[in-house]
Amino acid sequence: MGSLTDKVAIVRGGSGGIGSTICERLAQEGAVVVHYGGHASSANKIVNKIKTNGGQAGGGYV
Question: What is the phi/psi pair of residue 42, to 5°?
Answer without folding.
Answer: -70, -40
